[in-house]
Amino acid sequence: MDYPNDQAPGAPVRSGIPEHGRIPKYYAVKAHVSALLGELGEGEPLPTERDLALRFEVARETVRQALRELLLEGRLRRQGRATVVAGPKLEQPLSMASYTEGVRRQGRRPGRTLIGLDRFPCPPALAGEIEVERGEPVWHMERVLLADDERVGLESTYVAVSRMPRLDVDFDPDSSFYTYVHERLGIEFGSADERIETVLATPREALLIGTPPALPMLLIHRVSYDTGGRPTERVRTLYRGDRFSFTTRLGN
Protein backbone atom coordinates (compact mmCIF):
# COMPACT_ATOMS: atom_id res chain seq x y z
CA MET A 1 0.00 0.00 0.00
CA ASP A 2 1.31 3.44 -0.91
CA TYR A 3 1.23 6.12 1.74
CA PRO A 4 1.36 9.87 1.04
CA ASN A 5 4.56 11.49 2.24
CA ASP A 6 2.55 13.76 4.53
CA GLN A 7 0.40 10.98 6.02
CA ALA A 8 -0.13 11.89 9.70
CA PRO A 9 -0.15 8.91 12.11
CA GLY A 10 -3.53 9.96 13.53
CA ALA A 11 -5.19 10.54 10.17
CA PRO A 12 -7.23 8.01 8.16
CA VAL A 13 -5.00 5.86 5.96
CA ARG A 14 -4.82 7.24 2.40
CA SER A 15 -6.97 10.10 3.72
CA GLY A 16 -9.93 7.71 3.63
CA ILE A 17 -9.75 7.26 -0.16
CA PRO A 18 -10.40 3.65 -1.28
CA GLU A 19 -7.73 1.87 -3.30
CA HIS A 20 -9.94 2.02 -6.42
CA GLY A 21 -9.80 5.81 -6.12
CA ARG A 22 -13.53 6.43 -6.47
CA ILE A 23 -14.92 8.65 -3.73
CA PRO A 24 -18.29 10.36 -3.25
CA LYS A 25 -18.42 13.99 -4.37
CA TYR A 26 -19.32 15.21 -0.87
CA TYR A 27 -16.19 13.56 0.57
CA ALA A 28 -13.98 15.31 -1.98
CA VAL A 29 -15.61 18.61 -1.02
CA LYS A 30 -15.11 17.77 2.65
CA ALA A 31 -11.38 17.22 2.04
CA HIS A 32 -11.11 20.57 0.24
CA VAL A 33 -12.99 22.39 2.99
CA SER A 34 -10.82 20.70 5.65
CA ALA A 35 -7.73 22.13 3.97
CA LEU A 36 -9.43 25.52 3.87
CA LEU A 37 -10.08 25.42 7.63
CA GLY A 38 -6.34 25.26 8.30
CA GLU A 39 -5.83 28.39 6.24
CA LEU A 40 -8.65 30.33 7.91
CA GLY A 41 -7.93 29.68 11.59
CA GLU A 42 -10.20 29.40 14.62
CA GLY A 43 -13.27 31.63 14.69
CA GLU A 44 -13.00 32.68 11.05
CA PRO A 45 -16.22 32.46 9.01
CA LEU A 46 -16.53 29.90 6.26
CA PRO A 47 -17.56 31.01 2.75
CA THR A 48 -21.27 30.57 2.03
CA GLU A 49 -22.67 27.31 0.68
CA ARG A 50 -23.27 29.07 -2.62
CA ASP A 51 -19.65 30.25 -2.85
CA LEU A 52 -18.32 26.79 -1.97
CA ALA A 53 -20.61 25.13 -4.51
CA LEU A 54 -19.32 27.48 -7.23
CA ARG A 55 -15.70 27.01 -6.15
CA PHE A 56 -15.84 23.21 -6.23
CA GLU A 57 -18.37 22.97 -9.08
CA VAL A 58 -20.89 20.85 -7.18
CA ALA A 59 -24.50 21.15 -6.08
CA ARG A 60 -25.27 23.01 -2.85
CA GLU A 61 -26.70 19.82 -1.32
CA THR A 62 -23.29 18.18 -1.82
CA VAL A 63 -21.69 21.07 0.07
CA ARG A 64 -24.32 20.77 2.83
CA GLN A 65 -23.51 17.09 3.35
CA ALA A 66 -19.78 17.86 3.64
CA LEU A 67 -20.44 20.67 6.12
CA ARG A 68 -22.82 18.51 8.18
CA GLU A 69 -20.05 15.96 8.71
CA LEU A 70 -17.53 18.65 9.64
CA LEU A 71 -20.03 20.08 12.13
CA LEU A 72 -20.59 16.65 13.70
CA GLU A 73 -16.83 16.12 13.92
CA GLY A 74 -16.38 19.44 15.69
CA ARG A 75 -14.31 21.03 12.92
CA LEU A 76 -16.96 23.71 12.39
CA ARG A 77 -19.51 25.38 14.66
CA ARG A 78 -22.54 27.59 14.25
CA GLN A 79 -22.25 31.22 15.35
CA GLY A 80 -25.56 32.94 14.83
CA ARG A 81 -26.37 32.49 11.16
CA ALA A 82 -22.72 31.99 10.22
CA THR A 83 -20.59 28.84 10.18
CA VAL A 84 -17.11 29.38 11.62
CA VAL A 85 -13.95 27.35 12.19
CA ALA A 86 -14.08 25.58 15.55
CA GLY A 87 -11.20 25.39 18.01
CA PRO A 88 -9.48 22.15 19.05
CA LYS A 89 -11.43 19.62 21.08
CA LEU A 90 -11.06 19.55 24.84
CA GLU A 91 -8.95 16.61 25.98
CA GLN A 92 -10.33 15.08 29.15
CA PRO A 93 -8.07 12.56 30.90
CA LEU A 94 -9.51 9.19 31.85
CA SER A 95 -8.23 9.43 35.41
CA MET A 96 -9.31 10.40 38.91
CA ALA A 97 -8.66 14.04 38.01
CA SER A 98 -11.76 16.22 38.07
CA TYR A 99 -13.39 17.96 35.14
CA THR A 100 -12.12 21.25 36.55
CA GLU A 101 -8.49 20.15 36.44
CA GLY A 102 -8.79 18.74 32.92
CA VAL A 103 -10.26 21.95 31.49
CA ARG A 104 -7.84 24.25 33.31
CA ARG A 105 -4.84 22.33 32.00
CA GLN A 106 -5.85 23.42 28.51
CA GLY A 107 -6.10 27.08 29.39
CA ARG A 108 -9.90 27.11 29.43
CA ARG A 109 -12.15 28.37 32.24
CA PRO A 110 -14.33 25.61 33.73
CA GLY A 111 -17.79 26.33 35.02
CA ARG A 112 -21.11 24.72 35.83
CA THR A 113 -24.76 25.69 35.91
CA LEU A 114 -26.90 23.95 38.50
CA ILE A 115 -30.08 22.42 37.09
CA GLY A 116 -31.24 20.84 40.32
CA LEU A 117 -30.21 19.36 43.66
CA ASP A 118 -32.82 16.91 44.91
CA ARG A 119 -33.13 14.44 47.76
CA PHE A 120 -35.10 11.22 47.26
CA PRO A 121 -35.33 7.62 48.55
CA CYS A 122 -32.70 5.43 46.91
CA PRO A 123 -34.11 2.99 44.31
CA PRO A 124 -32.88 -0.64 44.25
CA ALA A 125 -30.56 -0.37 41.22
CA LEU A 126 -28.73 2.67 42.60
CA ALA A 127 -28.59 1.18 46.10
CA GLY A 128 -26.59 -1.73 44.76
CA GLU A 129 -24.08 0.54 43.04
CA ILE A 130 -23.35 2.89 45.93
CA GLU A 131 -23.93 0.26 48.65
CA VAL A 132 -26.72 1.88 50.63
CA GLU A 133 -30.02 0.47 51.81
CA ARG A 134 -33.01 0.69 49.51
CA GLY A 135 -35.05 3.75 50.46
CA GLU A 136 -32.15 5.45 52.22
CA PRO A 137 -32.01 9.14 51.25
CA VAL A 138 -29.65 10.10 48.43
CA TRP A 139 -28.78 13.33 46.68
CA HIS A 140 -29.08 13.83 42.94
CA MET A 141 -27.20 16.86 41.61
CA GLU A 142 -27.54 17.78 37.94
CA ARG A 143 -25.26 20.40 36.36
CA VAL A 144 -24.47 21.68 32.87
CA LEU A 145 -20.71 21.67 32.26
CA LEU A 146 -19.13 24.79 30.79
CA ALA A 147 -15.80 25.66 29.20
CA ASP A 148 -15.33 29.42 28.73
CA ASP A 149 -19.12 29.77 29.09
CA GLU A 150 -19.72 27.27 26.24
CA ARG A 151 -22.06 24.43 27.21
CA VAL A 152 -20.15 21.19 26.63
CA GLY A 153 -21.79 18.54 28.80
CA LEU A 154 -24.37 17.47 31.36
CA GLU A 155 -23.53 15.71 34.62
CA SER A 156 -25.70 13.80 37.10
CA THR A 157 -24.13 12.91 40.46
CA TYR A 158 -25.70 10.57 43.01
CA VAL A 159 -24.37 10.35 46.58
CA ALA A 160 -25.70 9.06 49.90
CA VAL A 161 -27.06 11.78 52.18
CA SER A 162 -25.46 9.98 55.13
CA ARG A 163 -22.01 10.64 53.68
CA MET A 164 -22.70 14.26 52.68
CA PRO A 165 -25.60 15.51 54.83
CA ARG A 166 -24.89 19.23 54.21
CA LEU A 167 -24.34 19.09 50.46
CA ASP A 168 -27.24 21.45 49.85
CA VAL A 169 -25.83 23.98 52.33
CA ASP A 170 -22.03 23.82 52.17
CA PHE A 171 -21.34 23.09 48.51
CA ASP A 172 -21.04 25.75 45.81
CA PRO A 173 -22.56 24.07 42.72
CA ASP A 174 -20.31 26.12 40.40
CA SER A 175 -17.19 24.63 42.00
CA SER A 176 -15.39 21.29 41.85
CA PHE A 177 -17.24 18.49 43.61
CA TYR A 178 -13.97 16.57 44.05
CA THR A 179 -12.38 19.54 45.83
CA TYR A 180 -15.38 19.77 48.17
CA VAL A 181 -15.27 16.05 48.98
CA HIS A 182 -11.52 16.14 49.61
CA GLU A 183 -11.08 19.46 51.43
CA ARG A 184 -14.37 19.83 53.31
CA LEU A 185 -15.19 16.20 54.03
CA GLY A 186 -11.70 14.70 54.17
CA ILE A 187 -12.60 11.88 51.79
CA GLU A 188 -9.80 10.64 49.53
CA PHE A 189 -10.74 9.18 46.14
CA GLY A 190 -8.91 5.92 45.57
CA SER A 191 -10.28 4.28 42.41
CA ALA A 192 -13.19 4.23 39.99
CA ASP A 193 -15.03 1.93 37.62
CA GLU A 194 -15.78 3.68 34.35
CA ARG A 195 -17.68 2.77 31.18
CA ILE A 196 -17.87 4.83 27.98
CA GLU A 197 -20.38 4.55 25.17
CA THR A 198 -21.70 6.63 22.30
CA VAL A 199 -25.32 7.77 22.53
CA LEU A 200 -27.71 10.42 21.25
CA ALA A 201 -28.99 12.95 23.76
CA THR A 202 -32.64 12.91 24.76
CA PRO A 203 -34.68 15.97 23.72
CA ARG A 204 -34.36 17.34 27.27
CA GLU A 205 -30.61 16.77 27.39
CA ALA A 206 -30.08 18.33 23.97
CA LEU A 207 -32.05 21.40 25.10
CA LEU A 208 -29.98 21.77 28.28
CA ILE A 209 -26.65 21.37 26.46
CA GLY A 210 -27.79 23.45 23.50
CA THR A 211 -27.11 20.91 20.76
CA PRO A 212 -29.15 19.23 17.99
CA PRO A 213 -30.64 15.87 19.12
CA ALA A 214 -28.76 14.13 16.28
CA LEU A 215 -25.33 15.15 17.60
CA PRO A 216 -23.43 12.09 18.93
CA MET A 217 -22.57 12.24 22.62
CA LEU A 218 -19.94 10.46 24.69
CA LEU A 219 -21.61 9.01 27.78
CA ILE A 220 -19.47 8.11 30.79
CA HIS A 221 -20.78 6.05 33.69
CA ARG A 222 -18.56 6.19 36.77
CA VAL A 223 -18.68 4.75 40.28
CA SER A 224 -15.92 6.25 42.42
CA TYR A 225 -14.53 4.69 45.59
CA ASP A 226 -12.60 6.10 48.51
CA THR A 227 -9.23 4.70 49.57
CA GLY A 228 -11.04 2.18 51.76
CA GLY A 229 -12.98 0.78 48.80
CA ARG A 230 -16.31 2.30 49.82
CA PRO A 231 -18.44 3.81 47.00
CA THR A 232 -18.48 7.61 47.14
CA GLU A 233 -20.47 8.67 44.08
CA ARG A 234 -22.29 7.39 41.05
CA VAL A 235 -21.95 9.75 38.06
CA ARG A 236 -23.56 9.87 34.63
CA THR A 237 -21.91 12.44 32.35
CA LEU A 238 -22.74 13.36 28.77
CA TYR A 239 -19.99 15.08 26.80
CA ARG A 240 -20.48 16.66 23.39
CA GLY A 241 -18.89 14.38 20.81
CA ASP A 242 -17.88 17.38 18.70
CA ARG A 243 -16.07 19.13 21.57
CA PHE A 244 -14.38 16.33 23.53
CA SER A 245 -11.81 13.61 23.18
CA PHE A 246 -10.48 11.42 25.98
CA THR A 247 -6.91 10.47 26.77
CA THR A 248 -5.26 7.89 28.98
CA ARG A 249 -1.89 6.21 29.49
CA LEU A 250 -1.78 2.42 29.58
CA GLY A 251 0.76 0.29 31.35
CA ASN A 252 1.42 -3.31 32.31
The main β sheet shows up as: 6 strands, antiparallel
User: Which stretches of 5+ consecutive residues score pLDDT under 50?
Assistant: none
Which band does the percent of strand residues land in? Answer: 25-35%
- Form type: elongated
Number of strands: 10
Q: What's the N-to-C terminus distance?
A: 33 Å
> What is Rg?
22 Å
What's the overall average pLDDT, rounded? 85
Q: Helix/strand-derived class?
A: alpha+beta
Q: What string gives the helices and strands in order?
A: HHHEEEHEHEEHHEHEEE
Number of helices: 8
Can you give the helix content as a percent range? 25-40%
Strand order of the largest sheet: 4-5-6-9-8-7
What does this structure look like?
There is one protein chain. The chain is 27% helix and 33% strand. It is built from eight helices and ten strands. The chain has helices at 25-40, 49-56, 60-72, 99-104, 124-130, 167-170, 177-184, 203-209; strands spanning 76-79, 82-85, 90-93, 110-121, 137-147, 150-160, 189-200, 216-226, 231-240, 244-247. The strands form three sheets. It has a six-stranded antiparallel β-sheet with strand order 4-5-6-9-8-7. It has a two-stranded antiparallel sheet with strand order 1-2. The protein is elongated. The model has no long low-confidence stretch (mean pLDDT 85).
Short key terms for the protein model shown above:
252 residues; alpha+beta; two-stranded antiparallel ribbon; 33% strand
In short:
The protein has 252 residues and is of the alpha+beta class. It has helices at 25-40, 49-56, 60-72, 99-104, 124-130, 167-170, 177-184, 203-209, and strands spanning 76-79, 82-85, 90-93, 110-121, 137-147, 150-160, 189-200, 216-226, 231-240, 244-247.
